[in-house]
Design brief:
Blueprint lengths: L1 E6 L13 E4 L11 E7 L10 E5 L9 E6 L11 E8 L11
Antiparallel strand pairs: 1-6, 2-3, 3-6, 4-5
InterPro entries: SKICH, UBA_autophagy_assoc_protein
Organism: Monodelphis domestica (Gray short-tailed opossum)
Keywords: Coiled coil
Amino acid sequence: MTSFQDVPLSSTLQISNFAHVIFQNVAKSYLPNAHLEYHYTLTQYIHPYPKDWVSIFKVGWSTARDYYTFLWSPMPEHYVEGATVNYLLSFQGVENRSQEIS
């Protein structure tokens, strides 16, 4: 399940030279096979592209190849350049594959 909405830049977002994608309420760990919802914001300083993705990485990851799973980030239907957009991505029952990853 994915959803998004256009929102104005508010005082809850801090402008940064580095963080152009801001994830909200990220836990330090998650239970295996749990349903996970990721809420994140694209600031006005980043342009969404059809091949943008969000992934779950194993502990101690060192390269982009160290992911467990990923979802493509949807393109907003009525995106206006320079707009801030909130997203929600849902990972359904993410499997603990630690034994499969070498």
